[in-house]
Amino acid sequence: MKRIFSLFLVSVGCLLANADTPAAKSVQAPAPGFSNDVHAVFVPGRGKDSARWPAPQPLFARDLSNADMQPGAWAFNAAGVLAPTRATGAKANGDVWTKETYGDFAVSLEFRTSEKSNSGVFIRATDIVDWLQNSIEIQILQGDEDKPVHLVGAIFDVAAPARQVPITPGEWYRYVITAKGSTITVVLNGEEVNKVDLELWKDAGKNPDGTANKFTKAYKDMARAGRVGLQDHGTPIEFRNLFIERL
């Protein structure tokens, strides 16, 4: 009996020792911008088949080799922050766009503004020159705006956010933007601030509530796949932890 008990103690000791080895640790620390709780950042239900679900990928490579932009117009710094490279107050030198196109996807990113910063996240862009008429813009704006459809969290010029969210200069905020079919959902710091069904925008230049918009075609006819872009509107803007996953 003593011998059996001794063998049992040795076996338990081996198991405990092995539990501290790297091979025995099944949970890895998440990479920057990711979360072990897949529901915390990306779409509901993502973890139901996590063994087969593709992991989110960086939206842009650190060297921006997978981006379209004016040469040198944007760059990552050593801390992983992406921003326009122009001097403060200098004329904007263009936006930055993915080379790849995306249809149904979720994109997660953080942004930081200065006073009166204006920027935006473009999705499903089919023309990166005439982007206004050929993409959907989720607005970034620091400060007040007479038109609610131009506030932060708005789908620019067509759908106001559920409420005006104060944006403090110098603080980081997280967007999770999901495009699936005709539905666009905007989550800001964990709060759903906008959700629209594009099919409701049936008339060119007009929103469902009868107000005018800037678009020369019915918004329901916006392409269901295209590039993702970040806007340099000529005011300070920074981005970090940019990830995208196809749905």
Description of the molecule:
The chain has a single domain, classed as Sandwich (Jelly Rolls), CATH 2.60.120.560. 9% of the residues lie in helices and 29% in strands. The chain contains two helices and 13 strands, in the order ααβββββββββββββ. Strands 1-13-6-9-10-11 form a six-stranded antiparallel sheet, with no helix packed on it. A five-stranded antiparallel sheet has the order 2-5-12-7-8, with no helix packed on it. A two-stranded antiparallel sheet has the order 3-4. The N terminus is likely disordered.
Number of E strands: 13
Look at the structure and give the mean pLDDT: 84
How many angstroms does the end-to-end distance come to?
A: 59 Å
CATH topology: Jelly Rolls
How many domains, as an integer?
1
Helix coverage percent: under 10%
Instruction: Assign the CATH architecture.
Output: Sandwich
Under the CATH scheme, which class?
Answer: Mainly Beta
> Helix tally?
2
SSE string, helices as H and strands as E: HHEEEEEEEEEEEEE
Outline type:
globular
> What strand line-up does the widest sheet have?
1-13-6-9-10-11
Strand content: 25-35%
Give the assembly state of these chains.
single chain
CATH superfamily: Exo-inulinase, domain 1
